[in-house]
Amino acid sequence: MAFHKIIDNLLLKYYPDGEYKDDERLVKFLTLISSHYNTFERDKKITEHAFTISEKEYTNVTADLKQQNEITSKSIEKLKDAIIHLEPEKANTFSKDDDNIINIISFLSNLIKKSKALEVELITAKEIAEKAALAKTEFLSVMSHEIRTPLNAIIGTIELFKFHTDLDDKKKELLRVMEISSENLLSLINDVLDFSKMEEGKIQFSERDIDLRYFLKNLRLANRIRAEEKGNTIKLMMDDDIPNFVKGDDLRLGQILNNLISNAVKFTKNGTVIIAATLVKRAQDFVEINFEVADTGIGIPEDKQKLIFERFTQANNNITREYGGSGLGLTIIKRLLLLQGSEIKLTSEVGKGSKFYFNLKFKTSSAKSIVEAESDNGKTDLNNLSILLVEDVEFNIFVAEMMLQNWNAKVFKAENGLVAIEMVQANKFDLILMDIQMPVMDGYTATMEIRKFDSSTPIIALTASLSIDIQEKATSVGMNGYITKPFNPNELFDIIKKNT
Amino acid sequence: MKTSQLHFINGNWKSILPAKNETLFTPQLVLAFGDTGLVADAAVFNYLKASFPSASIISASTSGEILGDGLFDETVAVTAIEFEKTPVKCVDTNFNDHSNSFEVGKYLMNELLTDDLKAVVIISDGSLINGSELVSGLNDKKPAHISVTGGLAGDAARFKQTVVGLNELAIAGKIVAIGFYGDKIHIGHSSFGGWDEFGKEREVTKSDKNVLYELDNESALDLYKEYLGPYVDELPGSALLFPLSIRIDNEQTNLVRTILSIDEKEKSMTFAGNLPVGSKVRLMKANFEKLITASSDAAKEAMEDLVNVKPELALLISCVGRKLVLQERTSEEVEAAKEIFGDDTTITGFYSYGEISPFNPNTTCELHNQTMTITTFTESV
User: Fold this and answer.
1) Does the ipTM exceed 0.90?
2) Does residue B229 sit at the A interface (CB-CB below 8 Å)?
3) Out of B226, B231, B286, whose CB is closest to A53?
4) Are residues B154 and B123 located together in one domain of the fold?
5) Cα of B198 to nearest chain A Cα, Å
6) 8 A C-beta contact, residue A272 and residue A220
7) Final residue of a domain: which of B244, B262, B285?
């Protein structure tokens, strides 16, 4: 029987002849010792192996930690570098060499606090600015509105004076000055209203059939007198390929071109103003047309060519004194075209003239002709039509009544909507002119009431506002059309003619 | 209290410790711890039944029997106890009669619980039952002052089938609870391991009750294999060399969990107690001297409250894992306990698959592994 190696070695040394084998108790004792040795050895082997594995694990853990530490150190270093780079004066608030990030954290949290406070300030400032902008727009809108009412009376009075045939040339000249000045004032107010509407994003474009040839001819006619006054000739050149009818917003197109033409006339003396329209493209459902207004006037220096499209800016301050104008016109044109996906362009040379041009797309129209009310000069006869004028402002009543009577109409008056309803119930009128804002009962309500028993009598709204909403609302309550105050006598005549 | 001890060894019954006045000896309780085959042997059981006709006979299979200062295998160690002033009640139930191990624990406590219940000793099946859940069930409605101690039956180092019986042949899946009543009985208990933790702390990342799959997202079985190195072929027995120390829910005290079986296909390890996901574990390693010292420490603490008297009976329940580590030195831990108690204390017990004992008096009991758990009984105080 073999004992543990250590015991065997000892036995060999002390019992070389193996005589211990005779002692049974000794053998039993040695067997037990040997077994203990083996157990110890087995345990030692397991322990050593386990500790080796554990050591290996710890080595890995340590390596991981070391790597993480390095990454952390590098990150902190980069963070510090970034902060020092951004705010060099903060460099001394923390040490660049250690991994201590407590100072950095407080630095960053201060930074965050600051930017939070700044954010709050900015929001407040923005709100104040927005309120201010809103207040400005509202102010412009209200003021323009308020100015239009007396202006209505002035223009109306001028129109009435024009019926007097016994005026001498001197008086006619004075009247002419008054007329032009008041028209300038009206167009200025309209510009301001347009501008504030654009600021509020309230501009909408309508779609109507336009007879472009007729439209451009009228445009030329309307500006001819003023052009001739300055010794200018206006020429209209129109491409034969342009279709007779297109669909678009004739009012806005007129506004744009009128503005350009009146500018051209204003800045040209004894020269030529050319209005040109050429076809750019004709497709299945749209046509693209290039409009051009060129003059041989004073021209615009190159360094001012961009500036003139900024609001309230003209080429130089002297121009304001010499030629007048608000400087809003071109800004409005630029924005109106932008809203329609187009852009106004300009070429100009000082002393030789300017050319403004732009392309505009129109939907194709299937119209064959457009019935226009006859507005030929002289044929201003309403043939004894009975017209109910519903209006509360006395001066407006006076102006409108004078005009209508001059055109041989029979005028009946109602001072508010309620009176109007009673009158319509009692009498038959050929047409009703209905103010919108009135005491007791407004024009919309009165129209709705009238439409309950009378669906045929034409009702035309008289409004001081240029808003698109008015147009929609007027139609929805059963009105047949609307006209904005102060009204041009021709427009008033046309709309009455069209609806009777 | 009167006790007597018998030993069935090599096919013969031997009287080890005869009762002092044998003719007047009427034990209420007989504890028979033995080899799985022997405690399920009708002849052995019938002998005990004939010898102690009026006693409740509780038998359980073991991984080694403790009798006096001796440690035995493939024997039956019998201790008969007559309580002079203490009523005793035994109940049993089958694991299969309940939906889970928790319910088993609840049922047993409910059967024994009265106002004067003082202590409970559990002798449970060790292979079908989930020890952690059984203990939770026992604790569920238990008033704090009642101590619960005991252990799970063993099956040598085979980990196959354990058997337990009450007044009948021991069978698998049986759980027996003994209730001790009244003020005359004094119970002491303690539980010591003596293992050293080593290596890094790991987290249980995948487990199902007492089946462990992954530690730190890596296979727990592979980890064990790496650690066992040259002893990998001796799995699962060799895994007992490295029990797990487990801390659940960041509690202060750690429990020890030992391996019952492994599943190569599932790469899983079944432990003698639950290992909830998120628990922190460390490997443990035996140190011979500390294991043996733990045994005498347990003995000291189990009789701490006794002044000038020795306990009359000491029930030693030690873990099979300790035996596999200590090998032929196992008897030293029994001797160490015996040395503390002296000759006046009757000593019995067994090597088990799990020990039950509170960490501290008046607290809930816990399932332990790899400990020496001692319960002392004294009526003469």
Assistant:
1) no
2) yes
3) B226
4) yes
5) 8
6) no
7) B285
Residues of A in contact with B227 (CB under 8 A): 49-50, 53
Helices (H), chain B: 36-39, 42-51, 101-112, 131-140, 220-228, 288-302, 320-326, 330-341
Tokens found for residue B280: 């922190």
Query: Could you tell me which chain A residue has the CA closest to the CA of B231?
Result: A46
Query: CA B248, B253, B255 angle in degrees (round to 5)?
Result: 65
Question: pLDDT per position in chain A (500 positions), as tens?
Answer: 589 999 999 999 999 888 888 899 999 999 989 988 988 888 888 889 988 999 999 999 999 999 999 998 888 888 888 888 877 776 666 666 666 777 778 878 888 999 999 999 999 999 998 888 778 777 777 777 778 778 877 887 887 787 777 778 888 888 877 887 787 788 778 777 777 777 777 777 888 888 888 889 888 888 888 888 889 999 999 999 999 899 998 888 988 998 899 889 988 999 999 999 999 999 889 999 999 999 999 998 888 888 888 765 555 555 555 555 656 788 888 888 998 999 999 999 999 999 999 999 999 888 776 554 444 445 567 788 899 999 988 878 888 888 888 888 899 999 899 999 999 999 999 999 998 888 889 889 999 999 999 888 999 998 876 565 677 788 889 899 888 877 777 788 888 888 87
Mutate to test the interface with B, among A37, A40, A46 (most CBs of B within 10 A): A46
Could you tell me the CATH superfamily of domain A206-364?
Histidine kinase-like ATPase, C-terminal domain (3.30.565.10)
DSSP A191: H
Q: Under an 8 Å CB criterion, which residues of A touch B?
A: 32, 35-36, 39, 43, 45-47, 49-51, 53-54, 57-58, 61
Q: Which residue of B has its CA nearest to A47?
A: B285
**Does the beta-carbon distance from B328 to A35 stay under 8 Å?**
yes
Contact B325 A51 (CB under 8 A): no
Whole-number Cα distances in Å, B172 to B49, B149, B164, B317: 20, 21, 6, 19
The topology under which CATH files domain A125-197 is Helix Hairpins (1.10.287)
Phi, psi (deg, nearest 5) at residue A476: -70, -30
Which token pair is B24?
């007047």
Tokens of B11: 């096919």
Q: Which chain B residue has its CA at the smallest distance from A32's CA?
A: B328
Q: How far is CA A419 from the centre of its chain?
A: 42
Nearest CA in chain A to B240: A46
User: What residue segments make up the domains of chain A, in order of their start?
Assistant: 5-73, 125-197, 206-364, 386-498
State whether B328 and A36 contact (CB < 8 Å). yes
Angle at A105 between CA A102 and CA A108, to 5 degrees: 150
Q: Which of residues 288-347 of B touch A (CB under 8 A)?
A: 288, 325, 327-329
Please tell me whether residues B24 and B10 are part of one structural domain: yes
How remote is the C-alpha of B288 from its chain's centroid?
A: 20
Class of domain A386-498: alpha beta
Q: Does B249 touch chain A (CB under 8 A)?
A: no
Q: With 0-12 CB in 10 A as exposed, 13-18 as middle and 19+ as buried, what is A288?
A: middle
A58 contact residues in B (CB cutoff 8 A): 199-200
Q: CA triplet B146, B322, B251: central angle to 5 degrees?
A: 50
B233 close to A (CB below 8 A): no
The verdict on B152 and B69 lying in the same domain is yes
Is residue A486 reached through a cis peptide bond, with omega within 30 degrees of 0 on the bond before it?
yes
Provide the whole-model pTM: 0.57
Q: By the 8 A CB rule, do B149 and B181 touch?
A: no
Shortest Cα distance from B53 to chain A (angstroms)? 43
As to burial, measured by CB atoms within 10 angstroms (0-12 exposed, 13-18 middle, 19+ buried), residue A178 is middle
Whether residue A400 contacts residue A433, with contact meaning beta carbons closer than 8 Å, is answered with yes
The parent domain of residue B310 ranges over: 2-192+289-378
